Amino acid sequence: MLELLDDLTRRIPDDTAIDKLTVNDGKLVLVGQSRAAPALVGLLQDSPLLAEPALSGAVQADPRSGRDRFTLAATVRGQAPEDANDTGR
């Protein structure tokens, strides 16, 4: 998880605010605001830790912030669904 957070921090531009980040059953979901939400897909495609990043649903303009509200989903590579729920017991 720390490696994934480090990778996302390096790839996501400073003009993007992440409101929610979840990783569940090998799936990553990011919800946030960005000045260039569609460009995030390209930035995350280069990640060795993620597969198939894509915007989910409509990108909506937020007139207050001047940013686009987005939801982005991707698959975490090398993490099978059963591994995501493994608590090390």
Task: Reconstruct the topology from this structure.
Blueprint: H1 2-11, E1 16-24, E2 27-34, H2 37-45, E3 50-55, E4 60-62, E5 67-76, H3 81-84
Antiparallel strand pairs: 1-2, 2-5, 3-5, 4-5
How far do the termini sit from each other? 18 Å
Order of helices and strands: HEEHEEEH
The stretches of 5 or more residues where confidence is low (pLDDT under 50) are 83-89
Structural class: alpha+beta
The largest sheet, given as strand count, sense and whether it forms a barrel, is:
5 strands, antiparallel
CATH homologous superfamily title:
General secretion pathway protein M, EpsM
Overall structural domain count:
1
Number of strands: 5
Notes on the protein architecture:
- With 89 residues, this protein is an alpha+beta fold.
- It has a single domain, classed as 2-Layer Sandwich (Gyrase A, domain 2).
- It has 3 helices and 5 strands, in the order H-E-E-H-E-E-E-H.
- The protein has helices at residues 2-11, 37-45, 81-84, and strands at residues 16-24, 27-34, 50-55, 60-62, 67-76.
- Strands 1, 2, 3, 4 and 5 form a 5-stranded antiparallel β-sheet that branches.
- The longest helix has 10 residues, at 2-11.
